[in-house]
Specification:
The protein is of the alpha/beta class. It contains 15 helices and 17 strands. Helix 1 crosses helix 5. The radius of gyration is 24 Å and the shape is globular. 38% of the residues are buried.
Length: 463
């Protein structure tokens, strides 16, 4: 089995880089990567807001962020209070549904939902946790639900979500988390010299670059100065890399609204009243919309690629507008490294062998033909399959397993959204340094989505 590249670019739709003339970037978790301490900071600030402003019990202040519990791409049921992982087709993963911090048994799952498949009516009460706040948000939701369960108090699951979400949004919009990061950037921001090399390479190739972020400019400026301080000379500035800088863009509304751009005065911290009908490299712009952006720049959709980490806020709008899209999923690197390990590949091979044996067994032996020995063998195979599943799951995350696949090897709902909105995906923008700027990125020939499509093993073509 060939090993996958943790720094590779993975292709959902064919992409010719020689056709791309404009590169756009989000800031948080795209250009800037953060340490795991950031999730604890967001969790603690949101928890304090819930206690101080929403009058949640003082005992909630004892809660601590648990980095081993959440993964990206979970869903919360605002009606029933369950936090769950869904597969590619919208079915609940049997061992990936939690009520508070307690995993529901398969019997409880059956009693609560009847079927594991989430229909359209049920899907309306589900909210996806997809952005870089999702880890702290999922953990805080589960902890709050668990508090009410332990205290034997009645609660409305939708109120829990609304309060946690409001607290998380307050932490972001009030600038609390921004001030916390800038006060100690060495703790929260991860420096990376390869990022500057990538951006400079694009500029040297004559590409246009723009920054489009929801964060305020002073936060982006402070972060970029810290990230680039070891790389720039005295005359250089990170702003020199970008042709257009847009902050507080209010994505995803940016892609559908008709809000005007405002020129931002960074010294006075004020917005100008004059109409923006051109972008200048030495200026910073706030708000705006896609319609005005395209009118001003005259950049055509297919020649623009936008990099972002949030599949809905960052990439859904650009993909519908005709831009090419690149999803930055930082978990991808670690998960590929795990998948490349011999211990994981051994369990995976074991799982597939057992799965095939069970398929043949059920196809050839009806229930009334099975002897006691056959039933005993069937039970042993099922136990061995479950053990292999559990072993693989624990290698990723003890509660929900891998981000991109379920315990059964089926792609997750998060993977479905990547497939839907990202032309390509990778763990970091600078992974593009491993590819020529004129490269043609193709969907691998042996990829299959439908079971009836033939998947020819690549080793047949090796000489």
């Amino acid at each position: 089995m060939p090993k996958m590249n943790p720094h590779g670019i993975y292709v959902n739709k064919n992409l010719r880089l020689d056709n791309i003339q404009v590169y756009g970037f989000d800031y948080d978790y795209t250009l800037a990567h953060y340490s795991s301490d950031l999730q604890s900071l967001i969790y603690d600030l949101a928890k304090q807001h819930m206690v101080n402003e929403f009058r949640y019990p003082e005992s909630c202040m004892k809660f601590k962020y648990d980095p081993t519990f959440p993964i990206r791409g979970l869903y919360y049921d605002k009606q029933k209070g369950c936090l769950m992982k869904l597969d590619f087709f919208g079915s609940i993963e049997p061992d990936g549904c939690y009520f508070g911090r307690r995993k529901l048994s398969r019997k409880e799952l059956e009693n609560m939902y009847g079927t594991r498949h989430i229909g359209r009516d049920q899907a309306r009460v589900l909210v996806g946790l997809m952005d870089f706040f999702c880890f702290s948000e999922a953990c805080l939701i589960a902890d709050m639900v668990q508090y009410f369960v332990d205290a034997k108090l009645e609660f409305d699951a939708s109120n829990i979500y609304n309060d946690v979400n409001r607290a998380i949004q307050h932490v972001h919009r009030s600038g609390l988390v921004h001030r916390g990061i800038l006060a100690d950037p060495n703790r929260y921001l991860l420096k990376n010299g390869q990022l500057l090399r990538f951006l400079r390479m694009l500029k040297d190739k004559g590409k246009k670059l723009f920054l489009l972020t929801n964060s305020p400019y002073h936060f982006v400026d402070g972060g970029m100065r810290y990230l680039m301080e070891d790389s720039f000379g005295l005359r250089d500035s990170w702003r020199d890399l970008f042709d257009v800088v847009i902050a507080k863009a209010n994505k995803p509304e940016f892609y559908t609204s008709e809000h005007p751009f405002r020129c931002y005065d960074e010294e006075r911290d004020t917005l100008a009243f004059t109409k923006v009908d051109a972008f200048h490299p030495n200026k910073v712009y706030y708000h705006g919309c896609l319609k005005s952006f395209l009118q001003i720049t005259k950049w055509h959709g297919p020649e623009v690629i936008y990099f972002g980490d949030h599949l809905f806020s960052d990439l859904r709008g650009p993909s519908k507008a005709g831009w090419r899209t690149a999803a930055i999923i930082h978990e991808l690197e670690r998960e590929i490294q795990i998948q490349n390990e011999d211990s994981y590949r051994f369990e995976q091979a074991k799982f597939h062998i057992i799965q095939e044996l069970l398929g043949r067994f059920h196809a050839t032996a009806s229930d009334n033909q099975r002897s006691e020995a056959c039933q005993s063998l069937l039970d042993e195979l099922n136990k061995a399959r479950q053990k292999a599943r559990d072993t693989m799951k624990q290698m990723f995350n003890r509660s929900f397993g891998a981000t991109f696949v379920t315990d059964t090897g089926q792609e997750s709902a998060f993977s479905y959204h990547i497939h839907q909105y990202a032309d390509v995906y990778t763990s970091k923008p600078e992974n593009f340094l491993f590819y020529r700027p004129e490269a043609w990125l193709h969907v691998p020939y042996d990829i299959k989505i439908m079971p009836h499509h033939v998947k020819v093993a690549s080793n047949l073509f090796k000489t």
